[in-house]
Structure formats: structure tokens, C-alpha cells
């Protein structure tokens, strides 16, 4: 998928918008699987009253309950795997997609810190209010790669990046004061960490990098849990993490039809409904957390994916409902 992402960037010229378009394309490719998934979920929701009746009738005989449920599935032409199988097929695709974006982010951060170490001002890949899409959309995030960001990059990526440098750049790096003969030789995680430390020390001698790390408030305590620093030139305004939570709520609302309250005499149904209600609040909070600890590029993907998924699932639900109504009318006419 990486050539697709790179190709989109060569057309658009902005990494933020390229990731948004990339996400839309992947979601469009997976639309047939989404239709199949929604079809199975809606069919299961329609069978819920009958399943609940069976659960009440055979509450004390689990073997009989399973047998009757399988008979119901066969009668309704429903496969228990019709809802989860499309999602399982999508998972490897999403992992590959994440890998492509992470690979790009790592390469861009390496290029940026090398530019700072050599006394140059790199392109920070801004997007709307975000100054650098490879850092978090947050006032608690610097606009430049830090030791924590660079240490998280696999050493194999460092090895490849150094191998792809031009001889001129390698010569200029080797000439820096804190570089030794073996600094640019990457063979394991320890040698990669030594290179990170050398690059950071070289970058800290540059006024542009120093200014980017300047803070207006240090060790600010949030909710008595974590200490953060507010940067003078901060990277973002926390808009994407908030949008991630809002779009997650809207996606759940547009995706899941309104469900009837579970019967008071059906503990299993009530437990299932309580779990669903908890997830409605859990996932938006999880969205905020992921977007705070990840780069703005990931948050752009997350928000775009939520919007596309919510709109497409709403349209799929309407389409399947119209087909179901047409089938009902046709049956009545017959």
C-alpha cells in the first residue's frame, strides 16, 4: 500500500490530505465487505426477539438452547460467521495500512532530525492548524522529533535510512563534532540508539531546534495523573483528538439502529445491552487516548475513517431497509 500513499502525495503535495484520501480509497475498496457485515448484523438484530424467547424458554438447558438457536439460524438462512468473517478479512488490510503510514512517518522523522543536525530547516509537513503531521495534535507536543519519538523507530528502519543517504550527507554527518567512526554503522538497537543520541546532541546546537523545544509551562499536572509541558511553539490545538471522539459517537449512532430495551426477565439480554451501552462511551474515550499518544497523521486517518464508516453504514442500513420493505410489499401483493 505504500506506493499508493506515495502516489497520492505526488498528486496532492500534502501529507495530511494524502492520508485522508488514502483512507477514503481503502474504505471504498472494503465497501463490499462492509455491506456483507452490516447485512449479517441487521439480520441478527431482527432475530433478537426470537432468540430472546428461546433463551427464556430454555434458560435451564443450554444444550437444548444451542440446538434451537442453530435450527432458527438454518430456518432464517443466517450464518453465525456472516457478521464477524468480513471484519476478520479486513483486519490484515488495516494492519498493512497502518504499517504503510508508520513506515512513512518514521522516514519523515529521520529526515527531519538529520536536517536539524546539519543546521538546515526541514519541511515539517503542516496541515491546516497542525504544524507537523508526524507529531501529535496537541499543545503538549513539540513540532520537532524528540528522543522519545526517534527511539520508537525500529533499528532496521534506521539502518535502511542511513544506507539510502547520499555520500555527501554521510560525509557531512560524519564530520559533526559528536560523531565517531562507528556512529553511522547500524547493526542493532543499541547502535541505533547511539545514532539517535548523536543526532539529538547535534540538533540541540542549532537555534531552530532549540526554539522548537522551548516551553512556556513545565511539569503541568493534569488530573493528578500525568505531568506534561506546554511548548511555546506547540504542534496543535487538540482538535483532532476531540473530533475523533465526536465522530466515534456519531458513527455509533448512525451505524446502530435504535434498540428496544431488554426485557426485565431476561438477565442475559440485559447484560448484553449493558455491555453495548458501556462500549458507546469506552470507544470515544479510547479514541481520544490513541490520538493523543499518536501522530496527527494517525488522528487524520482515525477521524476520516470514522466519518466514512458512519456515512457508509448509514447508507447501507437505508439500502437494506428499502430492500426489506420492497420484499415485504411484494410478498403482500403476492
Please specify the SSE layout and strand pairing:
Elements: H1 2-12, H2 15-29, H3 31-57, H4 62-75, H5 85-117, H6 147-151, H7 155-163, H8 167-174, H9 189-203, H10 207-212, E1 215-222, E2 226-231, H11 239-255, H12 267-293, H13 296-333
Antiparallel strand pairs: 1-2
Helix pairs in contact: 1-2, 2-13, 3-4, 3-5, 3-13, 5-9, 7-9, 11-12, 11-13, 12-13
Total discrete domains: 1
For the report, how would you describe the main beta sheet? 2 strands, antiparallel
Shape: elongated
Give me the number of helical elements: 13
Category from helices, strands and their pairing: mainly alpha
The fraction of residues assigned to DSSP E strands is under 5%
Terminal Cα separation, in Å? 50 Å
Q: Percent helix among the residues?
A: 55-70%
User: For the residues shown, what is the average pLDDT?
Assistant: 81
How do the helices and strands follow one another from N- to C-terminus?
HHHHHHHHHHEEHHH
For the largest sheet, list the strands in their spatial order: 1-2
Q: Which residues sit in consecutive blocks of at least 5 with pLDDT less than 50? A: none
Q: Give the number of DSSP strands.
A: 2
Radius of gyration: 26 Å
Describe this structure in words.
The chain is mainly alpha-helical and 334 residues long. The chain has one domain. 67% of the residues lie in helices and 4% in strands. It contains 13 helices and two strands, in the order ααααααααααββααα.
Amino acid at each position: 500500500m505504500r506506493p499508493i500513499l506515495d502516489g497520492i502525495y505526488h498528486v496532492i503535495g500534502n501529507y495530511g490530505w494524502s492520508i485522508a484520501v488514502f483512507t477514503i480509497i481503502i474504505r471504498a475498496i472494503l465497501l463490499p465487505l462492509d455491506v456483507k457485515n452490516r447485512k449479517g448484523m441487521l439480520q441478527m438484530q431482527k432475530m433478537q426477539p426470537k432468540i430472546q424467547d428461546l433463551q427464556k424458554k430454555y434458560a435451564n438447558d443450554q444444550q437444548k438452547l444451542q440446538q434451537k438457536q442453530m435450527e432458527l439460524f438454518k430456518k432464517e438462512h443466517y450464518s453465525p460467521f456472516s457478521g464477524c468473517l468480513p471484519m476478520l478479512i479486513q483486519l490484515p488490510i488495516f494492519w498493512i495500512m497502518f504499517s504503510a503510514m508508520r513506515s512513512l512517518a518514521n522516514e519523515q522523522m529521520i529526515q527531519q532530525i538529520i536536517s536539524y543536525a546539519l543546521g538546515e530547516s526541514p519541511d515539517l509537513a503542516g496541515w491546516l492548524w497542525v504544524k507537523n503531521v508526524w507529531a501529535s495534535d496537541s499543545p503538549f507536543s513539540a513540532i520537532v522529533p524528540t528522543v522519545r519519538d526517534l527511539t520508537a523507530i525500529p533499528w532496521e528502519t534506521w539502518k535502511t535510512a542511513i544506507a539510502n543517504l547520499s555520500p555527501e550527507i554521510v560525509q557531512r554527518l560524519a564530520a559533526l563534532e559528536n560523531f565517531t567512526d562507528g556512529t553511522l554503522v547500524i547493526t542493532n538497537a543499541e547502535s541505533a540508539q547511539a545514532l539517535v543520541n548523536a543526532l539529538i546532541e547535534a540538533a540541540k546546537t542549532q537555534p531552530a531546534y532549540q526554539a522548537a523545544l522551548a516551553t512556556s509551562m513545565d511539569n503541568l499536572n493534569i488530573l493528578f495523573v500525568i505531568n506534561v509541558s506546554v511548548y511555546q511553539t506547540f504542534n496543535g490545538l487538540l482538535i483532532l483528538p476531540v473530533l475523533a471522539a465526536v465522530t466515534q459517537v456519531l458513527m455509533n449512532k448512525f451505524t446502530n439502529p435504535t434498540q428496544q430495551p431488554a426485557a426485565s426477565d431476561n438477565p442475559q439480554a440485559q447484560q448484553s445491552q449493558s455491555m453495548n451501552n458501556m462500549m458507546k462511551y469506552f470507544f470515544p474515550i479510547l479514541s481520544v487516548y490513541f490520538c493523543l499518544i499518536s501522530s496527527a497523521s494517525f488522528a487524520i486517518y482515525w477521524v476520516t475513517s470514522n466519518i466514512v464508516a458512519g456515512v457508509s453504514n448509514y447508507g447501507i442500513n437505508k439500502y437494506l431497509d428499502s430492500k426489506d420493505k420492497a420484499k415485504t410489499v411484494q410478498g403482500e401483493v403476492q
